[in-house]
């Protein structure tokens, strides 16, 4: 897997590079600005780009805009965005875009190496990885939705893990239950959210987007 890293903090940038190289991943280039990141992505054509949300010169949303531009230039490029804290508007925008190969993690997650690498590989494989803290905050905001109030505490947990991008087996392992139990909970979630098997949509995606979209509407 070829990776480009864009992070303005030199210690974190080099730390990420060392970590990935230790895992036998090809770190093609590192960058300290969004412009450098885009140039590196053009030159090295990585499988995945890791970008900080806030980069010079304004330290606002340069990383996000660079991620959007990189995906425009190279459709299908996997992008994992890192942020120092939860930025709900971007997290919901990420999933409601309806495309894969995208991730949003808090920087503190990098220190949990196994979780970070799992998220990186998931994103590189075309999946989605959303930080559990982001999901937790968004989920709390959406508890005002009447249909979501129908869910049991266990169904809440299952839906939150679905939003992180985990499959049934990974959810089962996280909750210490069987695959069959997870499947049963998901069927119940679909039923309580009024999602019929006849609907011409992916009900798993629709269930997640239902409360994330509600969170986006409620975000000032």
From TrEMBL:
The keyword Endoplasmic reticulum does not apply. Residues 144-215 form the HTH luxR-type domain. The modification 4-aspartylphosphate is found at residue 52. One of its GO terms (molecular function) is DNA binding. CDD domains: LuxR_C_like. The keyword Membrane does not apply. It comes from the Bacteria. InterPro entries: CheY-like_superfamily, Sig_transdc_resp-reg_C-effctor, Sig_transdc_resp-reg_receiver, Tscrpt_reg_LuxR_C, WalR-like. Keywords: DNA-binding, Phosphoprotein, Transcription, Transcription regulation. Pfam families: GerE, Response_reg. Residues 2-122 form the Response regulatory domain. This is Response regulator transcription factor.
